[in-house]
Amino acid sequence: MLTVTRKDKRTRVAAATFIIATVLLVAALLSGCAQDGTGSGEGTEAEVAQTSLVGHDASVVGSGLPALVDLGSDTCVPCKMMEPVLEELASELDGRLHVIFINTNEDRSAGGRYGIRVIPTQIFFAPDGSELFRHQGFLSLEDILAKWSELGYEFGNAGEDTTGDAAGEA
């Protein structure tokens, strides 16, 4: 005959609690995936443009240009420090580099899709969509450009045309 001890009961209760918590977490994540992630529409144009990319990042990555995907939130200090860096990159390297910000508070499934554990995380993608490098934490504009250079992509100083096309110069 099998006897059930107090320890066994506590183990079963703990297991049941874990299962319920897991089911609730999965349900919360799935309901977050159903949202369009466009936000309220308030804020600056850059904020709206960044927010509107949530959920649409896969169509930009691998579309012929290298891409920098930054996963973060609007509540984390290092993530907020990344905002002006990303805005400058997006502005100055428009047409040469896709810059994508994914707010993990709005797109809760992004962490799983990209396998991140810490925010902010920056992921560097080749034009074909293959991952080249990832970094966790704040990364300055200079460090981002240096990493792209190390990976074989020369953007020069932000705002400077470094296409190497001498024929088009006056």
Overview of the molecule:
The protein is elongated. By secondary structure, it is α+β, with helices and mostly antiparallel strands. It is built from 6 helices and 4 strands. Helix content is 42%, strand content 14%. It has 2 domains: 1-34; 45-150, Glutaredoxin (3-Layer(aba) Sandwich).
Briefly say what this structure is.
This protein is of the alpha+beta class and 170 residues long.
For the structure shown, list the relevant keywords.
alpha+beta, 4 strands, 170 residues, four-stranded mixed β-sheet, Glutaredoxin, disordered C terminus
Write the layout of secondary structure elements.
Layout: H1 6-34, H2 45-52, H3 57-60, E1 67-72, H4 77-92, E2 98-103, H5 110-114, E3 121-125, E4 131-136, H6 141-150
Parallel strand pairs: 1-2
Antiparallel strand pairs: 1-3, 3-4
Give the C-level CATH assignment of the largest domain: Alpha Beta
Mean pLDDT: 74
Low-confidence stretches: 25-56, 159-170
Structural class: alpha+beta
Share in β-strands: 5-15%
Count of individual domains: 2
What is the architecture of the largest domain at the second tier of CATH? 3-Layer(aba) Sandwich
Q: What is the H level of CATH, i.e. the homologous superfamily of the largest domain? A: Glutaredoxin
Overall outline: elongated
Question: Count of helical segments?
Answer: 6
SSE pattern, N- to C-terminal: HHHEHEHEEH
The end-to-end distance, rounded to whole angstroms, is 94 Å
